[in-house]
Amino acid sequence: MSRNNGLAVLAILALAVGALWYFGRIQPVEVVEQKVRTAGAAVCPACQGRKQIACEACGGNGRVQAPEQMCAECEGTGRGKWRMGDTRTVRRMGGDPLCAACSGKGRTRASQACAACSGAALTTCLDCAGTGRSAAVRVFKTVRAGYSPWETVLSWLYMPPDDDAVPQVGPDGRVPMVDVYLALFQRNGVSGRVAKWGAVSRGANGWEVRTQLRIRRGDVESEEGRLFVVRNRQVISATPLAWP
Fold it and tell me: Which neighbouring-strand residues pair with 182?
């Protein structure tokens, strides 16, 4: 390959990478369902309201058998030594006595505290999440930003995307995640849209998106401030906000 051909190939690759970076940065926004377990009114049938159940790893014993180890008494030989007045050993014809600690096996096995329950023999009931009440599952919808084509390509090169990256903001200041999130609640004569976009900044619970909404309830229209919090690429809350 000539030098000119090599430069042409490099130029084409540079253009392809540049195009992917420019046009492939848009993150797809998808609606996801989440399930939240809350305590119900009835007693949990699995733990009978006790909030804990017997540990399955140790069968409620609190201890499990440890791996076999070399006997420290005979150093794995299985043979003991004759000692004056020692009645724990058994004399064998033509040889040393059996080791009293391992009975001639050369290895011993002891028990140890169960790692799953830390020796308590009980673990938190998963059916009720330790509440003692029957679990009620509440399903709600929210939105999540996926990986852009550019981020996907970088992940192939062992450069994983930032799962807590700043929410993507369009040229006009709009945050697509918030627009899709608002669309989930357009029902029963109530609709809303963002009238003004504020700053996107890092807060205590995640990325904060400040907005002023124009909300229509039937024939009545009003403007209200809303603070949307995004964490791990997902809208986790929307609370009232005093718009400046």
Answer: none
pLDDT number for residue 211: 92
| Tokens 């024939």, located at residue | 219
The domain containing residue 237 runs over which residues?
Answer: 24-39+139-241
Radius of gyration of the chain (CA): 33
Q: Are 47 and 56 in contact (CB under 8 A)?
A: no
Q: Residue 5 — pLDDT band, cuts 50, 70, 90?
A: low
Which of 198-224 are b and which e, b meaning 16 or more Cβ less than 10 Å from the residue's Cβ? bebeeeeebbbbbbbbebeeeeeeeee
Confidence of residue 209 (pLDDT cuts 50, 70, 90): very high
How buried is residue 74: exposed, middle or buried, by Cβ count under 10 Å (0-12/13-18/19+)?
buried
Residue 208 token pair: 């904060």
**Distance separating alpha carbons of residues 152 and 189, to the nearest angstrom:** 40
Q: Cβ distance 157 to 46 under 8 Å?
A: no
Residue type, 200: V
- Which pTM was predicted? 0.54
Q: Packing angle between helix 3-23 and helix 149-156, nearest 10 degrees?
A: 130
Please tell me the total number of residues recorded for the chain in this structure: 244
Question: Are the CB atoms for 135 and 40 separated by under 8 Å?
Answer: yes
Task: Give how many domains the chain has, as a whole number.
Answer: 1
Per-residue pLDDT of 130-166, as tens digits, reads 888 876 777 778 898 888 887 887 788 888 888 888 8
Q: End-to-end CA distance of the chain: give it in Å, rounded.
A: 64
- Is residue 111 included in any domain, yes or no? no
Determine contact, residues 7/112, Cβ cutoff 8 Å. Answer: no
Q: Is residue 74 part of a domain?
A: no
